[in-house]
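User: Sequence in, structure out. Go.
Assistant: Echoing your sequence, followed by the C-alpha cells.
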Amino acid sequence: MGPIRWVEQSLQIPLRPACVHKSLGRPGIDAGITCLQNFVIELKDAELEGEFGELPADVIEGELLAGGRSFRNLVPLPCEDGEKGSLGLTFVHGNQCVRASGSEIRIIEAGGMVYIEDFYPA
C-alpha cells in the first residue's frame, strides 16, 4: 500500500500492487488467472479510525464493506459507485489496524493488468 491522500473530503488509499483473480466463477475459488494491478480505493466524506503509520506498508488482511456486503481479503470488481462503504486494513508490521468509512466508495483502476499465472483450485 502506498501513501494515502486527502482530496477535498475524499480519502484515497492506493493499493500498489493488488493481486487480481479473474474468473468466470467465484474469485479466489474457481479456476482463472492471477494478475497484478494498481488500484485506488476512494472514500467520500471519509472518517478514519486508527493511524496508517509509516507508508508504504504491506497489508496482511483486509475487509471491504460495500453495498451492504462484506468482502474479506477481496475487492469486488467492478465496484458499484455511490454505495456507502468502509475499508479495514491490518498491516504486517506490528499488526497495526486502521478503518476508513465514507458516504460513497469507489474502486479506481490505476494502470494496466500484468499477467502472473493461471490459477487452479487445490
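User: And one key feature?
Assistant: The mean pLDDT is 88.
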